[in-house]
Design a protein that fits this description.
331 residues; homodimer; 6-stranded parallel β-sheet; Dihydrodipicolinate Reductase, domain 2
Chain lengths: 331, 331
């Protein structure tokens, strides 16, 4: 595998740090590594594979270096401004923000689901929303097998999805504390509010799950609705997904499809209390699926419970996997 | 209003204690009060309206006293054994356990929804499951107005639903601690497991939401499915409910129906971050409904977010309301 010169924008953030952890664990083939962040992190020392690196302040000259691939995780505004600058210099960007995801010239990729989409990138590839990623991994093989007609998502999302600020609101919130990241306390509470509200009454997070699922599965005809909720969990998003199919199925066929799909671990033995939970998914790269059962309220339906580490598979791991696909294409 | 001689079985438990709090707040017309619990609580002093009462040990002679109405909240086994003994002595039982709920000779009552059902009781009236109560309060007026075809529930249930043991698992679980009430830690986790698993892959809690909703709404034709999940919240259950109607509607009609329904407070002004949350519902008797929006994935559908204090409206308050209905009938 070819070694690449890799840059990270947002290297000191929660996802940025996890990029490095995931790359080290997967033995990602780096030649040179460049770390960028905002002014306040300038000069910060970061160890990667026993070697010292120093964080540089991101500016318009940052990409004059011989960089092949840049991973962005510094928020939508930074991506909007700096990704085009990088692309102009011939760098391929893998962006973890929502800035470019629905742009029709930007592939939105989950490597187990639509790896072929990286072929038509024009410099930017987007990493989907965390909740969407963990859902499309099981939805894709089920859609191929039985054709999905309608999906109803209800999510249980960890505070780490809001970065360090979310973790602090939860940790300090256990004692008396005025929340800083969220409008209300998250400790011992549920907030049916993730990202901004839109005029149709849905949040942006809810619409991301609808629109991004359509784009990744290449099928706008699937009917989807979503309710997204923040819960007092540190790491690991859960999704209660109700899925209706066009075609009939036996439950053992559903299990077979999921057991044989890439990136999925089926945890479903309720007699032994085996089901996916956020505390078990933390630090893992797979998507865990359980509570798989027929929905008796509709002709061809199931209910499933999908759990994944939102910072790993929901963000950093998926981004690194996209970079790996890119490198395999380069070689 | 006639004053009654009232007994409480399970007087020292979380719901038992809340019976007393709710009765005091509602100025429930008690003449004599009798408190029963297990042997270990015998002799415990309880103050009600500035008067001292002493807990008696429950046994087969307990009901030889002049009791009119007995509220039970001591678990299904105690209800199964002792409710018939009470009924034989002419006492009317309002039972908070699941023991009698689906018995065809036992009305299952939510006073805002089906108060007329108390008329056919034969000595026992059941109080429904906590999550079911808070859902049927908004479902009933919506069903009357637009005819419900199908419901998909995903719940976010507080640990107080498991009694003091649930609270302790959460509070101690914030530090390192081996859970006692639940099979896994609940702090910073979600457990897609409430009550026992059945052969069809559903939990008893999930089937309660289906079967009890049918019974309370007097309509077995409504298609219902459910996923019930325990979350690290002390008090207040949340439900993400997706509802499909037979009839078409305008969204302002949905709001009108909910705004004019008994027992409901609509909290829905997302531009001002107004939506129901467990920390706000704690200690309240209403059902809070918000995030009310059209489900664009189906012809006549909505998504709503329902929150109520599971110990108050989900248990104690509803039971006391049933007792109030009984007294009004007695007078």
């Amino acid at each position: 595998m070819k070694k690449v010169n890799l840059g990270i924008v947002g290297a000191t953030g929660m996802v940025g740090q996890t990029f490095l952890k995931v790359m080290e664990q997967r033995n990602f083939p780096i030649d040179n590594l460049y770390l960028f962040a905002s002014k306040k992190s300038k000069g910060q020392k970061i160890i990667y594979k026993e070697k010292e690196y120093f964080v540089e302040e991101l500016n318009e000259e940052s990409f004059n270096k011989p960089i092949d691939v840049l991973l962005f995780s510094a928020g939508g505004e930074i991506s909007k401004k700096y990704a085009p600058i990088a692309v102009e210099k011939g760098i391929t960007v893998v962006d973890n923000s929502s800035a470019w995801r629905m742009n029709e010239n930007v592939p939105l990729v989950v490597p187990e689901v639509n790896p072929e989409d990286i072929s038509w990138h024009e410099g930017i590839i987007s990493n989907p929303n965390c909740s969407t990623i963990q859902c499309v991994v099981p939805l894709k093989p089920l859609h191929s097998a039985f054709k999905i007609k309608r999906i109803i998502f209800s999510t249980y999302q960890a505070v780490s999805g809001s970065g360090v600020g979310g973790i602090l609101d939860l940790e300090y919130g256990i004692k008396s504390y005025k929340p800083k990241k969220y409008p209300y306390p998250i400790a011992f509470n549920c907030l049916p509010h993730i990202d901004d509200f839109l005029d149709n009454g849905y949040t942006k997070e809810e619409m991301k799950m609808i629109n991004e699922t359509h784009k990744i599965l290449h099928d706008d005809k699937i009917k989807i609705t979503s309710t997204t909720v923040r819960v007092p969990v540190r790491y690991g998003h859960c999704v209660s997904a109700n899925i209706e199919f066009e075609n009939s199925f036996e439950m053992d066929e559903i299990f077979n499809v999921l057991n044989n799909a890439k990136g999925i671990t089926v945890l479903d033995d309720v007699n032994n209390n085996l089901y996916p939970m956020p505390i078990d998914a933390e630090g893992k790269d797979e998507v865990f699926v359980g509570r798989i059962r027929r929905d008796f309220s509709v002709e061809n339906g199931i209910n499933i419970w999908i759990v994944a580490d939102n910072i790993r598979k929901g963000a950093a791991t998926n981004t690194v996997q996209i970079a790996e696909l890119l490198i395999n294409n380069i070689k």
